[in-house]
Amino acid sequence: MSASAARVRRAAVTSFSGLPRQFWWLWTSTLVNRLGGFVATFLALYLTVERGYSASYAGLVGALYGLGGVVSSVGAGVLTDRLGRRPTMLIAQLSTAASVALLGFMEDPVAIAAVACLVGMASNASRPAGQAMMADIVAPEDRVRAFSLNYWAINLGFAISSTAAGLIAEHGYLVLFLGESTLVLACALVVFWKLPETRPEQDTAQEPGGRTAAPEDREPSGAKAAAVPGPVRVSMATVLRDGRFMTVVGLNLLLALLFQQAYVSLPVSMSQSGFSSADFGTVIAINGVIIVLLQIPVTRFIQHRSPAMLLIGSALLAGYGFGLTALAGSVAVYALTVAVWTLGEIINSPTQMGLVVRLSPVHGRGRYQGMYALSWSVASLAAPLLGGTVIDHYGPDALWAGCAVIGTVAAVGYGALLRKLPASSALAATPVRGAGPLVDAEPTVAAPNG
């Protein structure tokens, strides 16, 4: 074996080994789900090309899809903490399968809009539960790696599904709706048969502001939280008073507004420029392909670097990557712009998720993840309205220029929020070994407000 091959093998072993079996079943469930992620990606093209509606109507339906996610994100977060991770995921997935299949048969514009809202509500409800379960079963020092691998699964499925869906859509969109419904059902079966409940049964001690003390991360991977006397209530008010966490949510909202344009405004803009749904499928598949190829090595590279600089850089790459779309006139140039903002996405995702988990108390993970998911849902609601309106009234170039501005604002916000974080700290949990159990090393940033 050559030296380079040996290094690749060691890197692969380091990246994939040491995670609990439950994580890999959750990973498999994620992969199966994303293999069927057709509808949200192609909904705008379905409405404008197949049904002949305007970009504004497509934006309205996309906004209602996002509104459904807004409604379900917080509610699903509460259910995740109260009812449990596994039942919340099953309810969400079964509801998604039913509503997606129903949407494929809707013809009346009002019915399409109403069912799209139901699809958004159901499909977003599983996110807080899945992220909370992952934090439950993975040891603190492995969480960034686990989130990166899960994000890799999302995009591996997306790269395959978006390419296939672009070709299938040329022969009829109903197959896309029914195909997604079938694969979501398969995802639910994996959860039902292979994933036990992981919700901690007893409260642990907390610090002011809703954050847990060190016992949160002393639990062994996949185990229940240790019992500590004195029940502590974690409510949505606790989350809202956590100033630092809510700032992270707000900054993520800005970036989510950018990333949503890839599935709302980009296909409409390409269609207006004479490109086909297959062209869009090819272009957007670049996003998934790059993440599949680079997510793991990039995560290894960034894992012990300054999170402040990573978040600032990722915001700039996202903003200016979308901004460059104004210069695109061919499939190749569109693909290049996707590559730029995808690099920002690769850097941002594990870094941001590591920060979210570190700020979330163990018995409030569902609520905290629900609030974080809410930022994506609000973006799903606002981005289609914003994108469709700007394209209809000012043209796509104005929209892409605005994306560059938003990316810059987000970068400045991350710099202000994390300026006190030491450059040597990483958002991956840094193991502190000594006489006591393994705990997380806390980043030295100001305590949350409230």
Shape: globular
User: What is the correct CATH architecture?
Assistant: Up-down Bundle
Distance between the termini: 57 Å
Element string (H = helix, E = strand)? HHHHHHHHHHHHHHHHHEE
Count of individual beta strands: 2
CATH topology: Growth Hormone, Chain: A
Number of helices: 17
What topology, given as strand order, has the largest sheet? 1-2
* pLDDT averaged over residues: 78
Strand content: under 5%
User: Quick one: CATH class?
Assistant: Mainly Alpha
Please give the largest β-sheet. Answer: 2 strands, antiparallel
Q: How is this structure best summarized?
A:
With 450 residues, this protein is mostly helical. 71% of the residues lie in helices and 1% in strands.
Overview of the molecule:
The protein is an all-alpha fold and 450 residues long. The chain has one domain (21-198, 236-430): Growth Hormone, Chain: A, CATH 1.20.1250.20. Helix content is 71%, strand content 1%. It has 17 helices and 2 strands. It has a two-stranded antiparallel ribbon with strand order 1-2. The longest helix is centred in the C-terminal third of the chain and has 30 residues, at 365-394. The protein is globular, with a radius of gyration of 21 Å. Mean pLDDT is 78; it is low at 203-231 and 421-450.
List the helices and strands and how they pair.
Blueprint: H1 3-16, H2 21-35, H3 39-50, H4 55-82, H5 85-103, H6 109-124, H7 126-137, H8 143-168, H9 174-194, H10 236-241, H11 243-260, H12 265-272, H13 277-302, H14 307-323, H15 331-358, H16 365-394, H17 396-417, E1 431-432, E2 439-440
Antiparallel strand pairs: 1-2
Helix pairs in contact: 2-8, 2-9, 3-4, 3-12, 4-5, 4-6, 4-7, 4-16, 5-6, 5-7, 5-9, 7-16, 8-13, 8-15, 11-15, 11-16, 11-17, 13-15, 14-15, 14-17, 16-17
